[in-house]
Specification:
Radius of gyration: 22 Å
Number of domains: 1
Shape: elongated
Helix content: 10-25%
Structural class: alpha+beta
Number of helices: 4
Oligomer: single chain
Largest sheet: 13 strands, mixed
Distance between the termini: 21 Å
Amino acid sequence: MSSVTFIHRTFLPVQSVRLGRFVRNRDEPQSEYLDPDSNTPLQPIINPHLSYGEVQQHAAGKNFSAFLTSLVSSSWTKTRKQYTHVTTSRVTTYQLDNAGLWFKEAVKPQTTREWVRESIDLGNDIYMVVGYSTMLDAVVVEGSADLAGTEAQVTMPVTASLAATGAVIPLGNITDPGISGKRDNYLSIRRQYVASGEQVCGVQYRKVCFRWFSSRDVTNAFLHGDCRWKWYSNIGSNIRGQEIGTNDIVEVELKDALEIDYEQEEYESDTYGKFVW
């Protein structure tokens, strides 16, 4: 099943994201979330991707690290309205193995169902984290948008690997990361820093959708499904998607389709899927 990866406008600490997490705001996976209890062990699939320079002779044009750093650089440039270039020594992807089975087990506990009910009552959408990507010791160079036409190149500095884990270290006058380009077009660098350690740059979601049924129209066997349960709510309450006084059974399911806000941009790759920022 396909998913959508949201590129964040800034790095997130790796501790702020967890596979299988239910969130209400896909821009902030570290707030208003639920980490469901489940009897099914959470099995992550971990794929490290070395920097493009280390593998280009073997996989030119096909390396995910090169693809993601290029995409993040482009999206941050458009978002911040200034030139941004990101490099890293390693990109790592974490994906939830067998997300459909994990979801069915995750919605069984009463605590999860109460959280889902509260979200629906509040009119919130629900998303499940099925993957995320991180960068290690990422170097970020920001400057005037005019710099984008200078064919500037950024190289990974030695100091990045020496920085304290989790800290964002301004480099100031340190000569690395190196900037090279056409000097006649080169203007100035506003800021350059190292996002030290492992930082999250993109989160992959699938949406939790729900449908309503009436207990008058279904058999008892219908309620035995893992993702269906009887909904007890005050008569007259305004629950989104429910016909008042008629539908009292909710069914939740995991979908691929995510709505994209009109101000957001998206990029779809045949190899790596859809990305949004």
